[in-house]
Amino acid sequence: MRPRLEARIGVSGAMVYVTPVLAVVLTMACGSVLFAALGHNPAAVLYAFFVQPISSAYGLAELTIKATPLVLCAIGLSFGFRANIWNIGAEGQLTLGAIAGGGLALWAGDDASVWFLPAMIIASLLGGAAWAAIPAYLKTRFNANEILTSLMLTYVAILLLSYLVHGPWKDPDGYSFPQSRMFADSVLLPLLTMGTRLHLGAPIALLLALAAWWVMARMFVGFQIKVVGLTPAAAGLAGFSVRRLTWITLLTGGALSGLAGLFEVAGPIGQLLPSISPGYGFTAIIVAFLGRLHPLGILLAGLLIALSYLGGETVQIELGLPLAVSGVFQGMLLFFLLASDVLVRYRIRWGRSVIVQEAG
Amino acid sequence: MADEGAPARLRLRGISKQFPGCLANDKVDLSLGQGEIHALLGENGAGKSTLVKIIYGVLKADSGALEWDGKAVAITSPSQARKLGIAMVFQHFSLFESMTVAENVALGLDDGANLDELSAKVGEIGRRYGLALQPERVVHDLSVGERQRVEIVRCLMQNPRLLIMDEPTSVLTPGEAEALFVTLRQLAAEGCTILYISHKLEEIRALCSRATVMRGGQVVANCDPRQETAHDLARLMIGEDFDQASKTAEASFGAARLRVQGLNMAAAAIHGTPISGLDLEVAAGEILGIAGVAGNGQNTLLAALSGEQLCAKAETICIEGQNAGDLGPRRRRRLGLAFVPEERLGHGAVPEMSLTDNALLTGYDRQDLLSRGSIMFARTRDYAQRIVQSFQVVTGGIGANAGSLSGGNLQKFIIGRELLQQPKVLVVAHPTWGVDAGAAAAIHTALLDLAHQGTAILVISQDLDELLQISDRIAVLSEGRLSEIMITAEADIGRIGLLMGGHGENGEAGQLDKQGEHHAAPA
Questions:
Q1: Staple B327 to which of A78, B19, B233, B331, CB 3.0 to 4.6 Å?
Q2: Same-domain status, B37 and B183
Q3: Are B21 and B39 in the same domain?
Q4: Which residues of A touch B302 (CB under 8 A)?
């Protein structure tokens, strides 16, 4: 008596939207059990995790700040994921964007013109894209697996940043701490509201999400990306170049991740540090799938995951729970999402399997 | 042959089977006499496969009763069906390519057996029924006809009393099919009942003594196919009258619109067949048919023609006088090529996408559906709507996913999509494969009309009858080589059959597998 999966006939289209909600509910339920086992009142923890962080304007601004890099990376990745290009090196591309844009800010010095900021934005787009161009070249030229190459390049990028802030770019007045000078105020992203850290990056991310939606829904290149991902043979028949689309999706993903990196260093951080991201580039993979690879879904998913970061900090401060709670929540969320996706498309049957002898 | 006094070998009473959204079998009655060859006839989706799966224990009926030799039985699994004496040869073979004939036969038996004894028995059965097979040969090296013989021998090892054959001749050359009929008649004469599923009407008329016709899950007629014309049988099957397409003799054709010269191409897939030294020309208004058993290089030729695989030299393929051998599919389409691949889902159409999107898939350039990189949805929907209307595609609407259409309707949609692009050259693979008689006639008519308007059409098909019906000239593709091109009206069918059989095989059953017969090495 072994369990086996049997494809369901007639999968409901609405389930595509129900499963993310279901995954969130299940995560909360399991989280409650976990907190109860740790000796806390689940209701209090859930309140501290999900509600308290966003019960003030400041909290909402923090939420948006955290969501911005997640959304940017996830949107970039979603193009590739739609086309079956598995770029999981957004963290490295984010780092290179920060190095390229941040390097320009350091070079400009303390009395930089405000016009350096657009130049830094372009530099970060190019930096991230250049880092993604390496897996793209290896994939199209040698058919090297982009999952491995993009992931490995992430560690190279992080080490490169570490070398820079420990070496040539170290702040000479920084008491030997591994960090760069602070960027000039003129090249930091302008703040949007007084009293918060909300910066220009957030509305730019929103606009890019809308643009991404337009590309996927209305543009021929978006159509080509979808066809390549769903049915490569049909793309070949229609004359869509998989090679070209591999380049397009990887470069787009790299550029947007690079932009996310710049928005961190020219936004809340204001300088280059050995670690500029708590794994936004990796978490963005969860965001992309939780958002169903749809730009508007990614916006919502980005906010939810950002909340899990904030909530983790809050329960640590308020209730003394470990910060790892954020990671556990994110992990459970992805697990339940994937599991409910499987169960929407298949049902579990127990018992002897019927052999259908129609193997070709 | 059927003895009216004896109880029927198998009797079904009121078999019903409901699938979500579709009543596949609706109170079906069927009675199979001892030693009769009984045809089960019906269009796609008529419920034949469901019924057969119920008989073979793969599916369970919702209601109804089965009687075996007059006794009520419940068949709950294929192994139980085999114990009763029911054997089945599926349309798609289930053989292990890297194992020998004897090993494959051994795997099909429910009890283990000594391989040497088995080999001897395979030889004995082969001699008795004209199913010559060498037990030590590896299946990978066998022709399709030989593979089918392995399947049949595997069934005969169990001394079946009911043998179910699902579309057995769809993969055979005419000579091989004739040999199969000899075997089946001999089996029937020995008392084995044969349930023969097919939609090839001439074949059924030649072989079967009774026919049950199904339509929409119900039995609509029982008849003696020998007493009916093929046209009558087809009418019973589709429930309405239809006109069979036929071509009018064309006096002359225009200039060559498609020219292939010295095409050599390696196979794209493992176990594919490469093409060597292929030349052909298709003139405006002409239909050139390429016959041949599947796996003889059709896929390689199709990929070379569509541009999915590029030629080394541009002049190898010429479309409308322009060298196109080095152009990809998109630029070949701009020159006027339209293309219908063999596989509908997963090649010709994206199953998860709507018909509108699937219309866009190949129509984007020739139907002018793009404007500065954006999709013009109104135009695209209009195009999809025109396809659905012109080709009477049965669908919930152009927003329906391609995967939700039946095979025949999707085929009509894909053919329509290509035809509405007013191609100069059309390459079609298996235009009516798995399509019911009514839709097949509509597709044939559309192809003939298009040729009449001056399009050069190349049809690659396994269905020889179809090619003889619509093509002006015909050639055979065998092991990657194209035979001489013959004028269809003057072609000798026996000769075509021999060419389809390939090297060293001459289509006569008794002479097929002599010891030491030359067998071309697979590529």
A1: B331
A2: yes
A3: yes
A4: none
Contacts of A36 (CB under 8 A, 6+ apart): A42
What residues of chain A score a pLDDT lower than 70? Answer: 1-2, 9-13, 351-360
Same domain, B196 and B289: no
User: Does residue B271 lie within any of the structural domains?
Assistant: yes
| Closest-CA distance of chain B to residue A88, Å | 25
Q: Is residue B522 part of a domain?
A: no
Domain boundary residue, one of B221, B238, B255: B238
Per-residue burial over A19-55, b if 16 or more Cβ lie within 10 Å, else e, is bbebbbebbbeebbebbeeeebebeebbbbbbebbbe
**Residue A26 placed within a domain:** yes
Confirm whether A214 is domain-assigned: yes
- Does the distance separating the beta carbons of B350 and A234 come in below 8 Å? yes
pLDDT of residue B271: 65
End residue of a domain, out of B238, B259, B274: B238
Structural domain for A311, as ranges: 3-348
> Other C-beta atoms within 10 Å of A149: how many?
20
Best to test chain A binding among B107, B110, B343, B364 (most A CBs inside 10 Å): B364
Burial of B185 (0-12, 13-18, 19+ CB in 10 A): middle
Note the pLDDT of residue B520: 39
Q: Are residues B395 and B493 in the same domain?
A: no
Between β-strands B71-73 and B473-478, what pairing exists: parallel, antiparallel or unpaired?
unpaired
Nearest-CA distance from B116 to chain A in Å? 26
End-to-end CA distance of chain A: 27
Q: What is the tally of structural domains in chain A?
A: 1
Distance from CA of B77 to the nearest CA of A (A): 7
The beta-carbon neighbor of A354 closest among B77, B90, B339 is B77
Residues B285, B388: one domain?
no
Task: Say if residue B300 is in the same domain as residue B432.
Answer: yes
Q: Does A170 touch chain B (CB under 8 A)?
A: no
* Distance separating the N- and C-terminal Cα atoms of chain B: 46
What is residue B267's three-state secondary structure?
coil
For chain B, say whether A236 makes contact (Cβ under 8 Å). yes
User: Which DSSP string do the residues of B371-399 spell out, in sequence order?
Assistant: ETTEE-HHHHHHHHHHHHHHTT---S-TT
Q: Mind listing the pLDDT tens digit of every residue in chain B (523 residues)?
A: 444 567 789 999 999 988 766 688 889 999 999 999 999 988 766 788 889 989 998 888 889 999 999 889 988 888 889 889 999 888 777 888 888 888 888 887 766 668 888 888 888 888 888 777 888 888 887 877 788 888 888 888 888 999 999 888 776 777 778 888 988 999 999 999 999 988 777 888 889 999 999 888 889 889 998 888 877 887 787 776 666 666 665 556 778 899 999 999 888 766 678 898 999 999 999 999 998 877 788 889 999 999 999 998 999 999 998 999 999 999 999 999 999 998 888 899 999 999 999 999 999 988 889 998 999 999 999 999 999 999 888 888 898 888 888 777 889 999 999 999 999 999 999 898 767 777 888 899 999 999 999 999 999 988 788 898 899 999 999 888 899 898 888 888 778 877 876 643 443 333 333 333 344 334 3
Residue B295 resides in a domain = yes
Distance CA B374, CA A360 (A): 41
B73 and B143 in a single domain? The answer is: yes
How confident is the model over A15-46, as pLDDT tens digits?
Answer: 777 888 888 899 989 988 988 888 888 898 88
Residues B19, B72, single domain; the answer is yes
**Residue-range definition of the domain harbouring residue B483:** 245-336+423-439+450-512
CB of B162 closer than 8 Å to CB of B195: yes
Residue A357 placed within a domain: no
Which CATH number is A10's domain given?
A: 1.10.3470
Q: Is the dihedral of CA B400, B404, B409, B412 positive or negative?
A: positive
Please report, for the domain that includes residue B35, its CATH number: 3.40.50.300
CB contact under 8 A, A241 and B341: no
Distance from CA of A130 to the nearest CA of B (A): 25
